[in-house]
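ingest -> fold -> write
write: protein_1
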Amino acid sequence: MQTDFFTYLSDTVDSIVNRSSHDQRNREALEELDRFLSDINSQRELPDRIDLGSGPELIRKEHTELTREQIEQNARDMLEGQRHASVNAIERDIEARDTKFREQKENAGTAAQTAREATEESFSNALQNVNSDVLRRGLARSSIAINRVGNLEETQAREMTRIGEALGREVQRLENEISGLVHQRERALADFDVAFASQLTNKIHTLQNEHDRRRNDVLVYNNALAEREAAAEVNRRVQEANIYRTELDNRIREDQILGGEEGRSRAIFNEMSRILEGMNPRDARQLIMTNHIFRDNLSDRDFFRLYDRFTR
């Protein structure tokens, strides 16, 4: 665009006189041009990939794996109180029976002693009666008196023997009972050990089954969570892909509206022309000669067209 001397002089004067307002308009014009270029250039770039972020982390169940030895020890610990009570019950029963038999033995001895004393007293009374009777009849030294006393003594001896033998048999029976308690205790404890071993085996089996069931339940639960997380991840990626595809389609449509690269170049040239035309011609000339924004965003052909238009 060629200008005469008077027009150039007028533009120069206007540029100097109204410098402040021109500078403000020029800055606003360049900012507007920069926004336009940013928008149109962004249309050439691929849209950013959408990241919807990972979903909430699902809380998994925990399972403490136990060894066979730990399960067996747990079973023993759970039955220890019962085992201790059962052994104590056997010991108390044996102790009570031992005490009873010893008391019976002592009572048998006391009863035997009482029976002896009663026999002696009865013999003493009977002997006194015999002596009185033979004296009264004058038969104190007769064979009759001697025979009657002998009969009493023999009867007393037999009774004392009977009492002693009965006591001996009872004492022997009770001592056999007492000595038998040792074997009964051992047998009762042995029988309990057999029963306890079976009970312990059942308890171990029960605990092992419960442990395995809990492990399987936790595994199934955690696997279900993993499947839910995987499905959520797939859904998230599908959503991101759909959003990206929509953005990409929009960019393609915008590019088609602009007419591709040629349309884009034409739009930039027209916008720059509009911006420069709105400026003071002297400012427009100075700007296109010094600001790189024009050279960087135009082809050689369009730049020189614009340069030629606003610097002549």
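write: protein_2
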Amino acid sequence: MRLLSAILALLLLPLSATVFAQTYTDLASYCTDMSEVSTSTLVARTRGIPRSQAEAMMQGMTDPLAIRMVKEVIDFAYSRPATTSLDALRTELRNLCLAKKIFVQ
């Protein structure tokens, strides 16, 4: 239960203002960073945390860009089996970003 609480508490922390405020000069760097900051959400999925709990963590968020991106990560993560490895999820997320199918700026 403590692990679940810790994961939920950290679910959205990596999607901080510094990532969104940063200017990227190339898509590869942007996609790498976005796949890395999405790790806690992906871990929540692989640990079997229900989607409703992941979505509940967005309460209180006010930045429309951050909300959209978190929703995209949740949609992505919960459309894959919970048994998918973290590395596979991160790789697929990065590849979707490179193909401009997720995290489109």
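write: annotation protein_2
The CA atoms of residues 9 and 77 lie 18 Å apart.
The chain has one domain: 2-98.
pipeline exit 0
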